[in-house]
Amino acid sequence: MQPEPDAKPTPQLTLLYGPTLLAYDFGPEHPFNATRGRLTVELMRETGLLDAPGVKVVPPVEADRDDLFVFHTKEFVDFVQNACVKGYGYLDGGDTPAFEGCYDAALTVVGGSMRAIDLVMTGQTRYVFMPVGGLHHGHPSRASGFCIFNDIAIAIKRLQQQYGVKRIAYIDMDAHHGDGVVYGFYDDPSVLTIDFHEDGRYLFPGTGELHETGRGNAVGTKINIPMPPFSSDQSFFYVFDEVVPAAIRSFKPEIILLVCGVDGHGGDPLTDMNYSTASYLHAVTRLRELAAELCQDRLVVWGAGGYDPATCARCWTGVGAALADYNLPDFLPENWRQHFLKMTGEEAPVGLHENYTSDNTFPRVEKMVGWLKMKVLEV
Fold it and tell me: More exposed terminus of the chain, fewer Cβ within 10 Å: N or C?
């Protein structure tokens, strides 16, 4: 059957974004604020990415209260709803403040991630990128680390319950261990988690040790990679290429999920890592190849952490362009640089990329890879 003459081709990349997502904002003095997402999308627009062939922008929809209960307890949901009305205090031990509207803002993030899953699983797009999302620290009964409701965990539940997906690969390269997702599915053998993070001895939340590989039937499906402080592209490329393709090919997922937190970048104020834009582009490019090989191109990417606005904008724009096969200019548009100065009071960088970084942590990561190959990957 021939397609209708006016039928539009399936988008290659859908950017899941709308102004309502920017309501998930803890204020201008808090590291997790709306400036990150706003500057990112404006850079995408100024570079022409949003107008490129095969790129579509789709807004989020707000989740329903009942959608939360596949992962969160009713007591916690009630607590957040009440705190939203008060608009002050903390939702955890001191990292995640309540603000007026925080409940609805968090519902929008969850709804966006649910819509991202629906778009990919129903064949309406090849890839989805949601820069404002990826709240991987949220636990069933508590908020944590700037994360109120865990939109990723709810998205995984949706894959399992709505679409009957039996094998889900979740890769997380945020500098902070994605404890809410890893431990939320720690005894679930249908979810492979591969979590790159700065060693928990030096950074929040202090979890994600190498020997934590799952529980019960899920042993071997949880891979924690605690990278030494100051790890660079050199170390990340090596560990990623030695571990991720082998683990994913062995697992044979039906969909790949990536948390592309850019707080492992050398310019981030909250961590001690030293990746450049190259590490994020490498991860996205390799996972895109694996998605094509193993799971009908199904790939969903979230932005998550990253607390230097220029780094977020440059890295996430690069990620979007890599998914869309769009060539970005080497130099950042002057209009965007002037807008960045006006919004932040700081000079914007000139170029999109930096030099590849190297370090002296390689012997430590090489030893870690050897242990994983012997104990988990069995290669």
Answer: N
